[in-house]
Amino acid sequence: MSAQVSDSFGAVTSLPLVELRGICKRYGDLLANNDIDLRINRGEIHALLGENGAGKSTLVKILYGAVEPSAGDILWEGKPIAMGSPVQARALGIGMVFQHFSLFDNLTVAENITVALGKDWTLQSVRTEIGKISADYGLSLEPDRKVWTLSAGERQRIEIVRCLLQNPKILILDEPTSVLTPQEADKLFETLEQLAAKGCAILYISHRLEEVRRICSSATILRAGKVIATLDPRRNSARDIAAMMVGIEVGNISPREHAPKESMLKLNKLALKSETIHEIALQDIDLEVHCGEIVGIAGVAGNGQSELFAALSGERLSRRGMVSIEERDCSLDGITTRRTLGAAFVPEERLGHAAAPHYTLSENTLISHRLDSNVVSKGMVSKEAARKLAGEIIRRFDVRVPNPDPEARMLSGGNLQKFVIGREIISKPRLLIVDQPTWGVDAGAAHMIRQALINLAAYGSAILVISQDLDELFEISDRIAVIHDGKLSTANATESWSREAIGLEMMGIGQEGKHS
C-alpha cells in the first residue's frame, strides 16, 4: 500500500505515508518530545502508547499542525513539509479525533459538522452524508439533535463521523473508545479495519492494551518523551506492554474482605422526568449501597447514566423519600447539603464539570473541599492551605504537572482525571459516587485509581461506580446492576454475572423479572 521508489541500486523500496524524524518539543524546562522517530504506512493501524504525560498528545498535535516542533522534520509521502496549521494538515488528508470534544453544545449534530467542514458543504448535504456514514459504519447519529442533549459516547461519534466525511489518508484517534460501550467499540474496530483495507493509515492512541493487541499491527511506545520501543503488539502480552509504558511491572489489584455494613445510600422508587425530549426519564429505581462495598452500574451510553448521576449528586432534585443518605431524606437537598452529609461526587466530564479549566488546581480543590476552620480567616479560605492540599493530591496520586500549581486545562486528560479522583478520595468521604473513574487514563493510573477505590471501601466508605468498562466493574465491584432506558436491574453479586447476561441486560433483553 506504500508508495514505490527506487534506491541508488535500482531496488524498489516502499515509502511510508508520513514519517517523523528527530522531533523535539520543549516547553521551558520540560522536554515533552525528545528526538522522536515515527513511521506510518498506508493501510496500517499503528498504536502510539505511553503513560499519561509521556508526550503522545504533543506529538500528534505536531503532526496535525496544532503545535510547532522545536526541532525535527516531517516527511509526507517522502517529501519534507512544514506543517503550519490544522487547516494545512486536513488539506493533505490528516484527520484527527481529539480526546476532549471540540463541539458547540448549542448547535445540532449537523451544524457542528458543517462548521468544521467549511464552505463547500451545506447543512442538507451534511445531513445526507451523516445518514450514509451511519448506515455504512453503524455510527448512529440524529442530525438535528442539539449536542448538549447527547451522551459522551454520542459526542464521540460526531467527532469520528466529522473526520470520516473528509476522506482522510491518515486518521489520528486519541482514546476513541474511552466513552464507547463494548458493542460500539467493536463496531468502531470494524470501521477502522474497513478504512485500513482501503489504504487509510490509522494512528491509534489508547490505554486499553487488549484492544491495541486486537487491531494494531505495530506500536510505538513513548516514556518521558522518548521512544522506548517499536514492536508488534500482537506478539507481546498486555502486561509486558504496560511495563514498558510505565517502566515497572503493573501489579494486580489487592483483594479485600467484604462484609455488608450499614446502609449509606438508598434509592426508593427514584423517578425523574426528562427535561427535554432527548433526555432519559428515570423509572422506579431501587438501590441500596452499604458502607464498605462497591456497587457498579453498567450500561450503554445514553441510557440514563447522566440523569442518575445528577439525581444522586443533587444537581437534579427528585420527590420526597426517593434519595436517602445515611437514613436522611435528601431528595430535595442540593449538592452542598449532600456533601455535608459525607457524600462526594466525580462526574464523567472532567474538564468543565469536575474542574474549572482556567482555575488552578489549588483553586479547584475548593470546589468540593470544606477546609478546616483553622485555615479560614474572615470568611476567606487560606490560599496557602489550598495549595498545600492540592500538592498533597498531586503527590499521592502521581499527578504529572508542568508547574506546582497549574491551571486545570494545562494537564493531560489522564492526569486531570487522577487529580479530580484524588481530590474526592483524599477527604475519605462516607459515600463516593463516581462516573467513568478511569476514562482515558493509562494502565498504571487505572490500576492506582481502582486500588484507591478498593482501599476507600476497605476504610468503610460506600462507593457507587458508573462505568462502561466491564473489565473495570468485574475487577472492583462487589455487586453489579445494569441501567437500560432509565430502568435499573437488580444489583447482583459480581460473581453471579456473566458477560453474556450483562450484555443482554445492556440491550434491554435480560431475563424476565430481573428488572426492579
Concise synopsis of the structure shown:
The chain has 516 residues and is α/β, with parallel strands linked by helices. The chain has 16 helices and 25 strands.
The CA-CA distance between the termini, in Å, is: 54 Å
Instruction: State the major sheet.
Output: 7 strands, mixed
Globular, elongated, flat, extended or rod-shaped: what is the shape? Answer: globular
CATH superfamily of the largest domain: P-loop containing nucleotide triphosphate hydrolases
Number of domains: 2
Report the top-level CATH class of the largest domain.
Answer: Alpha Beta
Which CATH-level-2 architecture of the largest domain? 3-Layer(aba) Sandwich
- Low-pLDDT segments: 4-13, 371-380, 512-516
- Round the mean pLDDT to the nearest integer and report it: 87
Total beta-strand segments = 25
Oligomer: single chain
Helical residue percent band: 25-40%
Count of runs of 4 or more consecutive helical residues: 16
Q: What is the percentage of strand-forming residues?
A: 15-25%
CATH topology of the largest domain: Rossmann fold
Query: Which structural class best describes the helix and strand composition?
Result: alpha/beta
Q: Give Rg in angstroms.
A: 24 Å
Description:
It comes from Hohaiivirga grylli. Belongs to the ABC transporter superfamily. Keywords: ATP-binding, Nucleotide-binding. One of its GO terms (molecular function) is ATP binding. With 516 residues, the protein is α/β, with parallel strands linked by helices. The protein has 2 domains: 228 residues, Rossmann fold (3-Layer(aba) Sandwich); 244 residues, Rossmann fold. The protein is 32% helix and 24% strand. It contains 16 helices and 25 strands. The strands form 6 sheets. Strands 15, 18, 21, 22, 23, 24 and 25 form a 7-stranded mixed beta sheet that branches. The protein has a 6-stranded mixed beta sheet with strand order 8-9-10-5-11-12, sandwiched between helices. Strand 19 and strand 20 form a beta hairpin. The longest helix has 17 residues. It starts with a strand and ends in a 10-residue tail after the last helix.
